[in-house]
Amino acid sequence: MSPADDVSWPRAATLADVASAAGVAISTVSRALSNPARVNSVTRERIEQAARDLDYSPNSQARALISGRTRAVAVFVADVTNPFYFDLIRGTQRQLKAAGYTQVLVDTEESDELEDLTLQKLRRSFDGAILAASRLTDARLAALSHEVPMVTINRQTKSVPSVFIDTPSGILQAVEHLISLGHRKIAYISGPETSWPNEGRWRAFVRATERHGVEPQRIGPFSPKKAAGAAAADAALNSGVTACVAFNDLLAIGMLMRLRERGVSVPEQLSIVGCDDIFGADFCNPPLTTLTAPIEQAGRVAVSMLLARLDSTTVSGMRDRATLPTHLTVRASTGPVPHERGRP
């Protein structure tokens, strides 16, 4: 046996240890620590002294059994590897930490079934949930909101509190920018069909193009990942468009990589616009024109809305909708329309 194997770690004190040291029942210790007013002062002081002497600290499960609260919030994201969620997770984490809550992070892998199943299986492990870009149906979200206190991000469903990053308005700005550069053949590079924000961006794209007498084109759907950008770029070249607005930055960056492989110059032969302004969008080649979104702020606002509900006995008059603006950040991936230049 090695010295490391011979180490004997001290056992953490339990509720039963405190009860034994104080000479009271375990139920009395529970009441004294969770609701001191229900225990007389002499007994309470004896219990508190015993807890201090034993260095007793109730674990989260014990606190939940005593108080019915875990002081934990689950944050559901569609793909934890997507840089869009980095700032969002940081925003929720900081706001929860400041309020004395623990964050439980769940990656739903773009699956509505996994999202639904995890919400149900882990329900007793958190007080409320924040669902970012939920893939659940409106009906299912509405039903779950009666069982689980929740706030959604980038998803608006009747009766479910939400934080909406207004990318449709940004899409309008992107189309106006491209049209001002002379583009008349513009395509929307679609994200997943199950994505609620994707449909909102497409509708905004249609409104903006039709306003200028330009026929809207939709290419896709594609997975919202960099790897899908190659197929998206090939499809865009085959369509004959001169500019594209991509569902998100990862897809747009993947397109830039594929176009460079094929010897297509951006923006001289094809202009590309992304969405979200994720980390890296400003130093890809060329730097990406994209919609800048207040992603970390969205996480903070969602936490504030959820905690207001958890800490209140009524939701009457409480804010259940928040809309955060976006704006177009112009970089080097967009330029004037090519004039009768040959295309590969």
Report on the architecture of this protein:
This protein has twelve helices and twelve strands. The protein is α/β, with parallel strands linked by helices. Keywords: DNA-binding, Transcription, Transcription regulation.
Q: What multimeric state do the chains show?
A: single chain
Which residues form runs of ≥5 with pLDDT under 50?
A: 1-9, 340-344
Strand content: 15-25%
Highest-level CATH class of the largest domain: Alpha Beta
Which word captures the global form? elongated
How many β strands by DSSP?
A: 12
Features:
344 residues; alpha/beta; 434 Repressor (Amino-terminal Domain); Rossmann fold; 3 domains; six-stranded parallel sheet; six-stranded mixed sheet; disordered N terminus
Brief sketch in words of this structure:
The protein is of the alpha/beta class and 344 residues long. It has helices at 15-22, 26-34, 41-53, 60-67, 84-98, 112-121, 138-145, 167-180, 196-211, 229-239, 249-261, 295-310; strands at residues 72-77, 102-107, 128-132, 150-153, 162-166, 186-189, 217-219, 243-246, 271-276, 289-292, 321-325, 327-329.
Describe the secondary structure blueprint for this structure.
Blueprint: H1 15-22, H2 26-34, H3 41-53, H4 60-67, E1 72-77, H5 84-98, E2 102-107, H6 112-121, E3 128-132, H7 138-145, E4 150-153, E5 162-166, H8 167-180, E6 186-189, H9 196-211, E7 217-219, H10 229-239, E8 243-246, H11 249-261, E9 271-276, E10 289-292, H12 295-310, E11 321-325, E12 327-329
Parallel strand pairs: 1-2, 1-3, 3-4, 4-5, 5-11, 6-7, 6-8, 8-9, 9-10
Antiparallel strand pairs: 10-12
